[in-house]
């Protein structure tokens, strides 16, 4: 099940973050501050048998506009659940929920952007699930080269 995060999900979501992003720290604080920034940041979790096994963070860029540019800020699935399509479900099933949230403010999705390491296999997910295309490569941004992908005129 893909659903909006609840406050009681934060510790479990932070554990997924910690396992997925080993070079990052302060997982609980990271998830908490993004949770606190709703609706600019919207976090959706993947839940299996009552356990949070993944999450996605969507971020509205450059203010609350009638045509929102979203960033897929972060996507993570617990390593024990890799290869089961949970990442794809998080993208595909949460985006209509974001669209619904935007509609409450009379806004629509215009474009979706995402950055990821140039060597991250998730690029293929972003291309196939969103129709995103690489627009630029940014050298040595975080821990390696990053690519900026944009899905233009997204229809959900």
UniProtKB/TrEMBL annotation:
UniProt cross-references to InterPro entries, sorted A to Z: Acyl_CoA_acyltransferase (IPR016181), GNAT_dom (IPR000182), MshD_Acetyltransferase (IPR050276)
Top-level division of the source organism's lineage: Bacteria
Chain ranges of the N-acetyltransferase domain: 1-155
One annotated GO molecular function: acyltransferase activity, transferring groups other than amino-acyl groups
SUPFAM superfamilies registered for this protein in UniProt: Acyl-CoA N-acyltransferases (Nat)
Protein name in the entry: 3-oxoacyl-ACP synthase
Source organism of this protein record: Enterovibrio coralii
Lineage: Bacteria, Pseudomonadati, Pseudomonadota, Gammaproteobacteria, Vibrionales
């Amino acid at each position: 099940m893909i659903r909006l995060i609840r406050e009681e999900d934060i510790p479990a979501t932070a554990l997924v973050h910690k396992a997925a992003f080993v070079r990052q720290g302060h997982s609980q604080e990271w998830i908490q501050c993004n949770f606190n920034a709703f609706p600019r940041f919207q976090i959706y979790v993947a839940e299996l048998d009552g356990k949070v096994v993944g999450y996605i963070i969507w971020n509205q860029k450059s203010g609350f506009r009638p045509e929102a540019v979203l960033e897929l800020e972060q996507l993570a699935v617990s390593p024990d659940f890799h290869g089961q399509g949970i990442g794809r479900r998080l993208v595909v099933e949460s985006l209509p929920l974001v669209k619904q949230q935007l509609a409450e403010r009379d806004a629509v999705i215009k474009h979706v952007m995402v950055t990821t390491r140039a060597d991250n296999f998730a690029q293929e997910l972003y291309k196939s699930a969103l129709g995103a295309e690489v627009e630029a490569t940014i050298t040595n941004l975080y821990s390696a080269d990053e690519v900026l992908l944009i899905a233009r005129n997204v229809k959900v």
